[in-house]
Amino acid sequence: MKTFYIILIFLNLIFAGFKPYTITGIVTEIVNGNSFKIVINNVEIVVKLYGIYAPEKFQFYGIDSKSELQNWILDKTVTVDVSGKDQYGRLVGTVYCDYANINWIMVSTGSAWWYKAYAPNDTVLKRLQFEAKEAKRGLWQFPNPIAPWNFKN
Fold it and tell me: Are the C-beta atoms of 141 and 134 separated by less than 8 Å?
């Protein structure tokens, strides 16, 4: 019966337009430093963290970024405040684990960039990136890290 409700939620997203909501489930896989898979009632869903962009898998610091996210959420119960869907159909949202905002942690540890193009008014992520850069944390300890949106092109 619960699977039926999840299907209804997705149909509502497709046909009635997006309405924000919250989901909770166990993280089963880390895809990269800004996305993971979550299982809710035996249904696997891919989630992308809102407002951040981590280095790509084969990009410098990509493995480190993925490991940071894994250390925080793999095999744990997380809550996602879903704010939308991306062009690949992934849910996009702010992720919480043990009351910690994981999106903020990824930027503050220097494991991801603030994704200004998709979160231009997020002053918290902007400040956290500035602080990580100033403190030379994570990818900021190296000269001239290449943003993933430039690496892909």
Answer: no
| Residues spanned by the domain of 88 | 2-144
- Number of domains making up the chain: 1
- The predicted model scores a pTM of 0.85
Tokens found for residue 68: 């940071």
Model pLDDT, residue 151: 87
Q: How far apart are CA 126 and CA 116, in angstroms?
A: 8
For residue 12, is it within any domain? yes
> Closest Cα to residue 48, out of 115, 137, 124?
115
Domain CATH for 108: 2.40.50.90
